[in-house]
Write a structure and sequence with these properties.
Layout: H1 8-15, H2 18-21, H3 26-39, H4 44-59, H5 61-71, H6 80-98, H7 106-133, H8 138-169, H9 175-198, H10 216-220, H11 223-253, H12 258-286, H13 288-308, H14 314-325, H15 328-350, H16 355-383, H17 396-420, H18 428-443
Helix pairs in contact: 1-8, 1-9, 3-4, 3-11, 4-7, 4-16, 5-7, 5-16, 6-7, 6-9, 7-15, 7-16, 8-9, 8-12, 8-15, 11-12, 11-15, 11-16, 11-17, 12-13, 12-14, 12-15, 13-14, 13-15, 13-17, 15-16, 15-18
């Protein structure tokens, strides 16, 4: 098979929406719980429950969205109209969540989060499913999702710079979150327009059967799909816990200032941006599932580095932040590339194009991980460890609980995810055989 490489221009345009979409996810998980509890006066447990309830409720939307997207036929494609349609929801959510005033309650937060995560689901599902169609080749898909993840990390770096820059210009407890909201309202439509207007979406076969909602159990019968989903769930839960507690760990457990903690988070994602191309190279040399397992073990090493740094030491804190962030990019880009290969395997076996449904299920596992991460960490710290987010004098028991939720549980989850990937069946050689069989089917 002749492999055609996509141009860097097309890869950059395709990935451009990530510059805005990256702000709906981890930044909200990192900043909003503290913003709503410490600044707007909501109970910490109530904030954690609101995040968990919305994310878990939102999961049921994904399979339906996937099936509807697979059945969509428009002059510009299956997935591009959905990407464009989800942007207004995200703009409204950004205005609600980031410009809230003291006195708002759980209902307001739940409504804003519902819009944010519903719109995010539509846009991310449409973009990642669309990406799987841009190339049928094993290594080129790693490259596509490598660019996708790189732009996600650039978007994260941009939005994480905002609280630092905004607070220098106008110091205040709400300035940074307001700046993030303004960025999202402007960047989301601009970045999405670049992809929708300038990147083509390959047309689906006019004769291929379309997916149905009842196909979901059939997909779960695939060993490849099950392993991807389980590994992605555990990795997402681990990173979600660390993301939700990063600022608390640096300020309450390690004695850094809030200002440096924001810089540390920025450096963490800079490490992810540096590591992204490295994991693409590792995947090319060893196979994507091997690279993903190696990234899990590297994540544990990164947590150990954070644990051993001297309290309040800025130089070591900066170095540790970059080192611990190096494996971050691997999970998103490699899991989505692996799912594209699994889609080919399913299409050969069943004759049905279930691209949208497969990525809907993968998006769902990310949501479960994120929802459980915030709920488990915030409720656990509040009720089991007695941790007080607004206090600078937590008890030793509370700090021990913070270590357990930030270091111990994520490390265990990374180990389990690596074990799931042992003997993963859909190797590069097997995928090449599948693509050759699909091409013979198309030619006959």
């Amino acid at each position: 098979m002749t492999q055609v490489r996509l141009t860097r221009r097309n890869l950059a345009l395709f990935a451009a929406p990530c510059l805005g979409l990256a702000g709906i996810g981890l930044p909200l998980t990192v900043y909003l719980p503290s913003f709503y509890s410490a600044q707007l006066g909501m109970d910490l447990s109530a904030v954690g429950v609101a995040f968990m309830v919305v994310r878990l409720f939102d999961i049921g939307l994904d399979p339906l969205l996937g099936v509807v997207m697979d059945r969509t036929r428009t002059p510009i494609g299956r997935f591009k109209p959905w990407l464009a349609g989800g942007i207004p929801l995200l703009m409204l959510a950004s205005a609600m969540l980031c410009f809230a005033r003291p006195g708002v309650g759980s209902a307001y937060l739940i409504a804003g989060l519902g819009l944010a995560y519903g719109g995010w689901s539509i846009c991310v599902l449409a973009q990642t499913a669309w990406g799987s169609l841009l190339s049928p080749h094993y290594n080129e898909r790693s490259r596509i999702y490598g660019w996708w993840q790189a732009f996600n990390l650039i978007g994260l770096l941009l939005i994480l710079l905002l609280p630092i820059a905004a607070n220098r210009a106008d110091p205040g407890p709400t300035t940074g979150v307001r700046a993030m909201g303004a960025y999202l309202i402007l960047m989301l439509p601009l970045s999405a327009a670049l992809a929708v207007l300038f990147v083509k979406e390959p047309e689906p076969s006019s004769t291929a059967p379309v997916a149905r909602l009842s196909d979901w159990p059939k997909l779960m019968a695939s060993s490849s799909v099950r392993r991807i989903l389980l590994a992605d769930l555990m990795i997402g839960l681990a990173f979600g816990m660390d993301g939700a507690l990063f600022l608390f760990f640096f300020t309450k457990a390690k004695g850094f200032t809030a200002a440096f903690s924001n810089v540390g988070l920025l450096l963490y994602f800079l490490g992810g941006l540096i590591g992204g191309p490295l994991w693409t190279l590792v995947a090319k040399r060893t196979g994507k599932h091997v690279a993903l397992a190696a990234a899990c073990l590297s994540s544990i090493a990164g947590l150990l580095v954070l644990y051993v740094i001297p309290n309040g030491n800025i130089a070591w804190g900066a170095i540790a932040s970059v080192i611990s962030g190096l494996p971050y990019a691997a999970s998103n880009q490699l899991a989505r590339s692996l799912m594209a290969d699994a889609g080919d395997e399913e299409r050969l076996k069943s004759g049905v194009d279930r691209t949208g449904l497969l990525y809907a299920i993968l998006t769902g596992t990310a949501k479960v991980g994120a929802a459980l991460a915030v709920g488990i960490t915030f409720v656990g710290l509040d009720k089991l460890a007695g941790f007080d987010a607004a206090s600078d004098h937590n008890s030793p028991r509370a700090i021990m609980g913070l270590h357990a939720f930030f270091l111990g549980l994520p490390a265990l989850l990374f180990i389990l995810a690596a074990l799931v990937l042992i003997r993963y069946p859909l190797t590069r050689q097997r995928h090449d055989e599948i693509r050759e069989a699909l091409e013979r089917q198309s030619a006959s």
